[in-house]
Write a structure and sequence with these properties.
Structural class: alpha/beta
Largest sheet: 7 strands, mixed
Strand content: 15-25%
Number of strands: 16
Number of helices: 16
Low-confidence stretches: none
Helix content: 25-40%
Mean pLDDT: 96
Pfam families: NAD_binding_8
Distance between the termini: 25 Å
Protein name: FAD dependent oxidoreductase
CATH architecture of one domain: 3-Layer(bba) Sandwich
InterPro entries: FAD/NAD-bd_sf
CATH topology of one domain: FAD/NAD(P)-binding domain
């Protein structure tokens, strides 16, 4: 690594890869450095249970990869990326045995919501209709929007706590569907602006679906990396950067890292104020993750769940609100909100013929080492009697193990920081640009910057654009 580069990007998650691509396309000579032997960050696929069973280590379903504005501009299909769409985007069973579902069609979804049909359409149709013009503003740092009136109409509802916006709905099943979407935010549903998470996920689904990626999430990372290489970029793997002295000379350095790790690597270069700001950055709840190798598809009681790519378990709005509040307070729920994906139903590359996989996690207190295996399995078994009998292999990650696997997931926080009202736009620190550090030409581009977590690459995109403006 004695060569001199125009730009160095540390970390190959979706944001690091996006930043590297933007910089390289601008004509810079870019080196991407990845600490592990494979690139991808949260986009990795491994045989975690048994040979031939491919499991997504972190991200599994990709609504924002399909609906986000940046990836659409890249010819990733020419590099092996193939989206697979399930018949139903997401299913949500209730305690009475009924199921409410999110479908690709806004109107098909609304048609099954009884008295809430009009309220649901009124809430989401404006966002769905204008997704292509609004998403660049929604998935961006704080700035004057290109469409202030339309974005303002979205913001009126998006800034509300999920529990408050739920008052628009009268039906128990609609409220449960809404809670399952909002709980992706990994924070109490009573928090301000948690409605934004639910609205964006639903609208993205109606616009572009909730696809999985053929062969696993690693295929998206590989497509981005191979495109980057095709335009002249360079990648070095297996080089874990622990101090800035390990970096080659470059005009700028971009870090796809959490603030905690950025401080470890480059804290001695930063101002006292910036170090203080980064040290105060708040991380959220952790997750307990499970992967299953199965002898057959999950035996759901409801036929509606057998065609769903994603299943939200946890019951009613009230149930999910309670469980998320308990975890936020450092406690454990016996009826946790569980996110489950069953990719092998739609992608036969995920498992040997005749066998299947399942991917699931629940939220737990940060840094938790408690074994939640039986709790997650019991939650699935409620709605799929006989599920446990289909398990032929399993793999678990507690929150501490998740952080050990990916040091950016502090305490098992896969969103790389709480996405509440005080950190949505100011993450990781309140500055003229959230991507600039206090040291000239050092930038941060991770999920700890706007617009936050999710596989969309927009943090890297905007960070690279900021650096280019500063450099030229």
């Amino acid at each position: 690594m004695d060569a001199t580069f125009d730009a160095v990007v540390v970390g190959s998650g979706p944001n690091g890869l996006s930043a590297a691509i933007v910089l390289q396309k601008h004509g810079l000579n870019v080196l991407l450095i990845e600490g592990k032997d494979t690139i991808g960050g949260g986009m990795r696929t491994m045989e975690l249970t048994l040979p031939g069973f491919k499991h997504d280590v972190c991200s599994a379903i990709h609504p924002m990869a399909a609906a986000g504005p940046f990836f659409k501009t890249l010819p990733l299909d020419q590099y092996g990326l193939e989206f697979i769409h399930a018949k139903t985007l997401a299913g949500h069973p209730l305690p009475d045995g009924s199921v409410v579902s999110l479908h690709r069609s806004l109107f098909e979804t609304a048609d099954h919501l009884g008295k809430d049909k009009k309220a649901y359409i009124d809430l989401l149709k404006p966002l769905c209709d204008h997704w292509d013009t609004l998403s660049p503003d929604i998935l961006s740092p704080l700035k004057f929007p290109k469409n202030p009136i339309k974005l303002g109409l979205f913001g009126i509802n998006a800034l509300k706590p999920s529990t408050l916006l739920a008052h628009k709905f009268k039906e128990t099943n609609t409220r449960a569907l809404w809670a399952g979407m909002a709980a992706h935010g990994i924070q109490p549903l009573t928090n301000i602006a948690t409605s934004a998470i639910g609205m964006v996920l639903m609208a993205a689904g109606h616009h572009s679906g909730w696809p999985m990626i053929k062969g696993g999430s690693q295929s998206l990372a590989d497509a981005l990396a191979n495109y980057f290489l095709s335009i002249g970029g360079k990648i070095e793997k297996g080089k874990m950067i622990t101090h800035h002295s390990q970096l080659p000379n470059a005009k700028l350095v971009m870090f796809d890292l959490s603030p905690k790790n950025l401080l470890k690597i480059a804290g001695d270069k930063f101002s006292k104020l910036y170090r203080w700001q980064l040290s105060r950055y708040r991380y959220g709840m952790g997750v307990y993750k499970m992967d299953f190798a199965l002898s057959q598809p999950i035996p759901w009681k409801s036929e509606a769940l057998k065609g769903a790519g994603t299943v939200h378990l946890g019951g009613t709005l009230e149930d999910i609100t309670k469980s998320e509040k308990l975890v936020w307070e450092g406690k454990y729920s016996e009826n946790p909100y569980v996110l489950l994906s069953q990719q092998s139903l739609f992608d036969n590359t995920r498992s040997p013929e005749g066998y299947h996989t399942a991917w699931a996690y629940c939220h737990v207190p940060a840094g938790s080492e408690r074994n939640m295996t039986s709790t997650i399995e019991d939650q699935i078994e409620k709605h799929a009697p006989g599920f446990k009998d289909t398990i032929i292999g399993k793999h678990t990650f507690n929150s501490k193990e998740i952080e050990n696997y990916n040091p950016n997931y502090i305490g098992g926080d896969i969103n790389s920081g709480v996405q509440d009202w005080s950190q949505i736009f100011t993450r990781p620190a309140l500055r003229t640009s959230p991507y600039r550090t206090s040291f000239k030409n050092y930038y941060i581009c991770s999920a700890s910057t706007p617009p936050g977590g999710g596989v969309h690459g927009m943090g890297g995109y905007y960070a690279a654009k900021r650096a280019i403006k500063d450099l030229f």
